[in-house]
Write a structure and sequence with these properties.
Keywords: Membrane, Transmembrane, Transmembrane helix. InterPro entries: MFS, MFS_dom, MFS_trans_sf. The protein is mainly α and 392 residues long. It has 2 domains: 179 residues, MFS general substrate transporter like domains (Growth Hormone, Chain: A), CATH 1.20.1250; 190 residues, Growth Hormone, Chain: A. Helix content is 79%, strand content 0%. It contains 17 helices and no strands. The protein is globular. The two termini are 36 Å apart.
Length: 392
């Protein structure tokens, strides 16, 4: 423990709330994507650019900006990037044209680095025996932010219009940005690693060659995250189509199924500790494949859709957890950079899934989306089985 002050319980909770707010911004679009497309008069394929470029910009931002955390205080970076998110949301809120809305969403993705800086900041200010507890609290904040964003956006848009969602999001980010300087105390020591910025970036690539499993774990999670986004974007378009006739609030309520992961993920992680992450990942992938295979056959009724959506939400986060377990047990000196590689690959998958999900729906309807998800899940399962050899 260094000489910086320890966090109080109230500060820990406040940081978790901040993590929820800064994470939620990328997920408001999920249930309301059809309404936003109609407002700007663009096709379902073109509206996919909004979440796609947001996710790709997030991957670029993590790669370009997160390494700065080894040289500049986490506090200063978090405040600066939160301000960038606030400005980006303001652009989206006020945008009268689709191009400006896309630009705002892309900038928002690029500046969404705070969720990855807050755990590093907190880890320096808690006793070692409480590190897991505080890290879990921040992770719960992230999950809660995603959940509330997807449920709340659907309900608000149905009754107040989609733009009200972004007015509220901008106000929340402004409040967080103003609160962070008081919430996050200074006094951090300068990093001991004084590599140049280009050297910090380039040091990632030799690590990939030395730890080859990070690439396959990243690819598995890219497929997992990409299909998660594609399913929910396609589902939002399908449920609000004339064929089904539901409102955005229904899409939001369905997104509430993700709450199961808050309960299930810690238990799945404990089970993976016993059986090993690679074998557990195979089991989770097979269960998820079964759930995705049921999407189309059960999509005629909102009630029958609950079963495959419940299954995929149950085990999807477990695939991410087991993927991280494959490299978080390695040398502490390289874990941050390996995490950077993993997260960048994940969000590239999210970007591709965002565009593919809406484009395929636009061309082939819900049946095409389900077929695409089936292929992705088959590939994910095959990669998970292949990756088992790294643990032998």
């Amino acid at each position: 423990m260094n000489d910086t002050a320890r966090l109080t319980g109230a500060q820990e909770t406040s940081l978790a709330i901040a993590a929820a707010v800064v994470t939620a911004n990328a997920y408001y679009i999920h249930p309301i994507i059809g309404e936003v497309a109609d407002h700007f008069g663009v096709s379902h394929a073109r509206i996919g650019l909004v979440p796609a470029l947001n996710q790709l910009a997030l991957a670029l931002g993590i790669f370009m900006l997160l390494p700065l955390g080894d040289r500049i205080s986490n506090r200063r970076l978090t405040i600066a990037f939160a301000a960038g998110q606030t400005a980006s949301l303001a652009i989206m809120t006020l945008a009268q044209g689709f191009t400006l809305f896309v630009i705002g969403s892309t900038l928002l993705g690029y500046f969404t680095i705070a969720p990855y800086l807050l755990p590093a900041y907190a880890s320096k200010r808690v006793a070692p025996e409480r590190l897991g507890q505080v890290t879990a609290k921040l992770a719960a904040g992230v999950i809660l932010g995603i959940l509330v964003a997807r449920v709340g956006a659907g309900v608000m848009a149905e009754h107040l219009g989609w733009r009200s969602v972004y007015w509220l999001a901008t106000a929340l980010m402004l409040a967080v940005t103003l609160a962070l300087p008081r919430l996050m105390e200074g006094g951090e020591r300068s990093a001991s690693d004084r590599q140049s910025y280009p050297a910090l970036l380039m040091s990632v690539f030799p690590l990939i060659a030395r730890h080859r499993e990070i690439a396959i774990s990243g690819a598995i999670q890219a497929l997992n995250f990409g299909q998660f986004i594609a399913v929910w974007l396609g589902l939002a378009l399908y449920l609000t189509s004339p064929q089904m006739g539901y409102g955005t609030d229904t899409v939001g309520y369905l997104a509430g199924l993700a709450a199961v992961s808050i309960v299930s993920t810690p238990r799945l992680g404990r089970w993976a500790d016993h059986v090993g992450p690679r074998w557990a990942r195979v089991i989770f992938a097979l269960i998820q494949l079964a759930g995705i295979a049921l999407l189309y056959p059960l999509s005629g009724s909102l009630w029958t859709l609950l079963l495959p959506l419940f299954v995929t939400n149950l085990v999807g986060p477990g695939i991410d957890v087991t993927g991280r377990m494959t490299f978080l047990a390695l040398d502490p000196a390289v874990r941050t950079r390996l995490t950077t590689v993993y997260v960048v690959i994940m969000f590239v998958g999210g970007g591709i899934g965002s565009f593919a999900g809406t484009a395929v729906y636009d061309a082939f309807g819900w049946a095409g989306t389900c077929a695409l998800m089936g292929l992705c899940s088959l590939l994910l399962t095959a990669l998970a089985m292949t990756a088992r050899r790294f643990g032998r």
